Amino acid sequence: MNPARSAAAAAVVLATAGTLLGVAVPTASAATTCASPVFKRQLFANTTFKGTPKKTACDSAIDESWSGAPASGLPKDNFGVRWSVTRDFGSGGPFALAASGLDGIRVYLDGVRKIDLWKNTTKTVTKTVNVTVPSGKHTLRVDYVNWTGTAKVKFTYTPRTSTGVDKVRPLAPTGASAVYRPDGEGSYTDVTWAANKEMDLAGYRLYRRLKGSGSWTEVASATAGTRRARVQTPPTGQSYYYEVRAHDKAGNQSAGSADQLVVSQDLTAPAAPVLTATAVEASNDLSWTAPADAATYKVFRKSASETSYTELAETTGTSYSDTKASYGYAYDYKVSALDAARNARSSNVVRSTRSILPPQNVTATVPRYGAVFTWTEPAGGDTADYKVYRSTTSPVELTYANLTDCRSRKKSTDAAGNTVRSCVDYDGDQGATYHYVMIRQNTAGRWSTGSADMTVTRPGDEVPPPPVTHLTAVPLEYGVKLDWDDSTAADIDHYEVYEDPEHYEPSYLESVPAGSSEYVVGPEVANGETKAYIVVPVDIYGNSGSYEDSRDIPKWGGPYSKVTVTEQNLTPATVPEDTADCSLTTYSTLGDEGGMYIDCADSVATDAAGINVYRWDPATRTYVRVTDVPLAPTATHYTDPTVPHGTTVFYVLSVVAPDGSETFSNVDACASLPNGT
User: What is the CATH number assigned to the segment(s) 3-159?
Assistant: First the structure.
């Protein structure tokens, strides 16, 4: 079962008495009702759908695959699943019922069987039938049984929407209403309606006609999920009818809804106000004259790229500050004066553009790690944020694609008291030429225009150093020693060491500075494993071979050297049977003692006489006890002060019974580095 779909379906389960389909359901399932168009799913422990369902739930779709029992309490074979849903199909029309799966599938429409694939099969069977669903509410039921093996079932019902097939038009929308809202020169009518039930609905069209006329005109449209539209109504004092018509994906259009009458107002607007605008850093400031009969004013704004105005505010005053206008962009403004009856007249149109100064005195330097920019604040200003744009062409476009992450931001004060800011672009290619532009944001949240274009050429190159040569690996008793020749590259900075597991991506181990050409992997237990190591040289510009996690290309996209080595195998020749109620976990130390954690069952603390620690002695090929006296049976850790250094050590615990007999734990190992390491 699809968990995401089941979770979504669970959200529409309603805890109500009875069932959506009006079918008697046993008490155990009565609390589960699934809101249309969600399917109700019943699971039976038989293939005849007899008795009480073992489980009832909701599914937003039928698309299941079970390799075992579909739910607890059900067998993995010989079970049945029944899905059912009752929904309103609106005007109905041509539909395609499609079923597929393994074993038995039957599909019913209003109790009439439409698909019958009822046989035990190991191959997927499919069938699609075309049916015509009448208008109104109808019930779909899908019966599925699994006799043996994997269970798989899928069912869909979809409207057929081609113009040659679908000739059924939607039902006329219901619940239509129209409310006229006089608002000066922007008077309009809000039309609402109830949603149609057709599954192939494409949308709605709103029509208007003048009262006394028989000619309808389409004035608005809406998508299938919309149930309202707003249209301008001519302020002529005349009466108009509105109606809504639904149309489907095949182009069929319904009859009109009930006509809705509105009566418009005859508007006599006040005199036009005279508007002026002043651009300041914080805002575009507007002011206008006040006609004698004006009661309120609406302020409108439009950018150069827009085709219509947006209302910003309605006020009784004669001034307004637009603090949300973007810096550097020109806006057109107008003001409408409205009288008490909401009749309106617009002012003249004025244009205003806000701007602040960009970063000043910008300089750039190019050390090997990036491009460093320094600039000063404009006099009398302060910066809340700034952005740096980079391009290979000039002039630099201030787009998201050219935005670069200028990091290591600092703020200071120079000898003259000016605020100085700096940042570093680490990301450009070495040896490339770039053009940069900076903008700044003031403390009011507004952005400046761009600074002067700066041209910067990065030093260095993008060529990785050659791979190291003569890479060798020597197995040690406590790890592996890697050795290689010093790189001949003049700009070498360091080497990166990786372990390269056979079936996983390489893991980074350490960085070795230039001038060093060896590295010891350890402490590592010497247990005879075969391992591979990679050494990658990195130059002062950060160039190196890089790991590419893709099966279509080599793992490493640049130069590297790899060596394979088989570790020494110091594993004990004998391992005692693990019968003690204790487990042992060792750990490597860089000090003078080997350590281990002891984890025993509670019975050891009450029944045992003590715990001994044994260490494998390769010379005698025996386990030698390292505890002079047994540890307390409640011990949780132990450190071995006599651990040999520069080798791999294997330990085992023994639980000493009151009669002196011993049972042994698992064997675990740790590696210790040589003294002074």
Answer: 2.60.120.260
